[in-house]
Specification:
two-stranded antiparallel sheet, about 70% helix
């Protein structure tokens, strides 16, 4: 029985399924008699103080700023591995998914702004529909088995990784305000110590993670978004230590189940609770949720598929092996599953319950439509070999 449970959690789709369950629970609780308790707990303040200095934040911010820093630590480890020794090592492997990721960020942002340009407050949320949720997207692809060619799966993973890198840059550039240079200067101390440990191939992880925690506190106090400390820490963990072992690989492998099956579901449960009381169908068609939903559904399709189509037609890139255009279109639809990162960016933009409810509705509806549409297209799409055979049959008959 235990082995069966282990195999279940090792399945590619497991992370996405747990995420769906956490989201459904959040939705049910937010619309039940427990909604008051749910809101009260999330807004309960938790403080860590040393004299007059310290941190005092509601639980929801400890989740979004603290636990999500661990999520970004894992993202950083994955990015470093891919850049140094993986799919992103060769520039030629980056061109097509990289440009598709760029198109998949620009088009959703433009669609969102088309609906929200006239409202300066809402317009700041342009980055919400630009993200792709790796866990959900990979989970849907895993449910399709061998109907999705291996080359197309690699394309999606590379696109999603580069999309995460884009999201990190967006957060670093656009969500930093009221800089406190004293704390930013102090942050250089743990940064320098981590650099020394990385260059000397330090074997032990604990000192670097402790320095990363100090860096997180100082970055948080400086005004730069604290989750970036997780990414920075990841890049200072050696891929190879002085004994030839890989602390970065070991940490990535150890963190993955905790992030996928604990941290991300907790984040989803805390952020996906849409309170439908007093709301009607018309609320979905308000500029904020509509801009997010259409950005995810239409923007991702236009950006990812359009950029890929243009590059291939111009002879600047080639489709992944054994891939048809219909299958690529299905992947472009799946890129519209924003969820985790979209909700996270939304939480950076808006603070009121009404605004966050609008964000949640837009993200949930857009992500759900993208998932169902992408699954249906990939399910119905003929494999590349089958499509070629169908094209050749009329020619032979002629």
């Amino acid at each position: 029985m235990l082995r069966r449970i282990e195999k279940l959690f090792e399945h590619e789709a497991a992370g996405g399924i747990v995420l769906m369950i956490a989201t459904a629970l959040a939705f049910l609780v937010a619309n039940s008699g427990l909604s008051g308790l749910y809101t009260e707990i999330l807004h309960t303040k938790f403080s860590i103080m040393l004299g007059e200095e310290g941190l005092s934040k509601p639980l929801i911010l400890w989740i979004n700023d603290g636990l999500m820093a661990v999520f970004f630590l894992l993202v950083g480890l994955e990015l470093k591995r891919e850049i140094v020794e993986g799919r992103l090592k060769k520039p030629a492997n980056v061109v097509l998914p990289g440009m598709a990721a760029l198109g998949g960020m620009i088009a959703p942002a433009l669609i969102f702004l088309a609906f929200n340009w006239s409202d300066p407050t809402h317009a700041t949320g342009w980055a919400i529909p630009t993200a792709t949720d790796i866990a959900f997207a990979v989970g849907v692809v895993a449910l399709l088995g061998n109907r999705v060619p291996a080359g197309l799966k690699i394309f999606l993973l590379t696109l999603a990784i580069l999309d995460d890198l884009g999201a990190i840059l967006v957060i670093a550039i656009f969500y930093t305000d009221h800089l406190k240079l004293t704390y930013l200067g102090l942050a250089l101390i743990p940064l320098a110590l981590m650099l020394v440990r990385n260059l000397t191939g330090a074997h032990r992880l604990a000192p670097t993670l402790l320095l990363g925690t100090v860096l997180w506190v100082l970055v948080l106090k400086s005004g730069v978004h604290a989750t970036l400390a997780g990414v920075v820490t990841a890049f200072f963990i050696p891929l190879k230590d002085r004994y030839g072992k890989s602390p970065a690989h070991a940490l990535e492998h150890g963190l993955h189940p905790y992030v996928m099956f604990l941290i991300v579901p907790i984040f989803a449960f805390a952020n996906a609770g849409v309170d439908l009381s007093g709301m009607g169908l018309g609320d979905l068609f308000q500029p904020l949720p509509l801009g997010i939903a259409l950005g995810l559904v239409l923007g991702k399709q236009l950006g990812v598929f359009g950029m890929t189509f243009a590059l291939v037609r111009w002879g600047l890139a080639r489709l992944p092996s054994a891939t048809s255009w219909m299958q690529l279109y299905g992947i472009a639809c799946l890129a519209g599953i924003g969820f985790t990162m979209s909700l996270f960016i939304g939480s950076l933009n808006f603070e009121t319950d009404a605004q966050m409810n609008a964000v949640r509705i837009g993200v949930l509806v857009g992500s759900l439509i993208s998932a169902l549409l992408g699954y249906a297209i990939l399910r119905l799409a003929p494999r590349a070999a089958e499509a070629e055979a169908e094209d050749e049959a009329p020619a032979k008959a002629a």
